[in-house]
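User: Sequence in, structure out. Go.
Assistant: Echoing your sequence, followed by the C-alpha cells.
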Amino acid sequence: MLEIFKIGFISIRLIDIIDIALISFIFYQLYKIMRGSAAIQIFIGLLAVLGLSFVAQLTGMRALTWLLKLITDIWVIAFIIIFQPEIRRFLMMISKNKILMFLRGEGPEKPVNVSEELANAAFELSQHQHGALIVLVRSNELKNIIETGMLLNAKLSKDLLRNIFFPRSPLHDGAVVVNGDTIVAARCTLPLSNTMEVDGVSLGMRHRAGLGVTEISDAIALIVSEETGGISIAEDGKLTQGLSKESLKKLLNEKLNLQNQTNLRNFFGHLKK
C-alpha cells in the first residue's frame, strides 16, 4: 500500500494509521468501562507490558522480547478471566451501536426519564416505608465513595431501585450512586454530617449520610425515611423535607436540567479557549 511518510527507518502507510486509530479507540473504550474500578490498575499494567514488548521488538532486544512474549501469552488467558465483566459490557456496548442497530432493523433505545424514574421509585418506597438513600452525581465523580460499594453499572429504573432497597435485599444497606441514567454502584458508604437535627427534629443515620455527601461535593442526595416514609432532598448541606411525588419530580427536573445547561456552557467555554 502507498507509503505516506517515513520516520527514520519506519515507513507509515494509510493502513497503519487506521490500525493505530482502531486499537486506540478499543483501548479507550475499555478504559472508560473500567475507570473507577480496581481492574483499572491491572489494565494499566497490561498496557505497560504491551508497550515495553513493542519497544523491545522495535529495537531488536531478543531476550527481553522472548521474556515479554511468555508473559503476554499467559496474560491473554488472565485477561479473559480477570476482565470478563468488562469484556461483556464492551461487547454489549458495541452491539448497541446505532449503526449496527439500524442494520439489524432495530429502533433507537428509548431514553430514560431520570427525574420520573427517581420520583416514582421514591414514592413507592415511601408508600411501603422502605428506607432509601440515592446520591446523584454532578460534576464531582465521587470515585472514593463508589469504591466502597458494589459496582452495578445498570440502567436506571424504578423497579431496580425498589429491588435494591427492599429490606431483605443484601444491597439495601448504604447508598446507591446514580450518574446520569446509570446506577453506578450500591451499598456505598457515605460520610456522616455533624448536623444532628433540623428544625428541632433529630436526624437518623440515613439523613446525616445524605447531608454529609452534599457537604463534601456538589452531589444531590435523595432520602426516603424508613420510620415515617417521608421524602427529602439534600443539597449543599441543606435538607428539604416533606416532598410529594410531583414536587420531587419538579425539583429534580430543575436541578438536573440546570446541571445539563452548566455542562453545556462549560463545554462550549472550553471550545472557545
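User: And one key feature?
Assistant: The radius of gyration is 24 Å.
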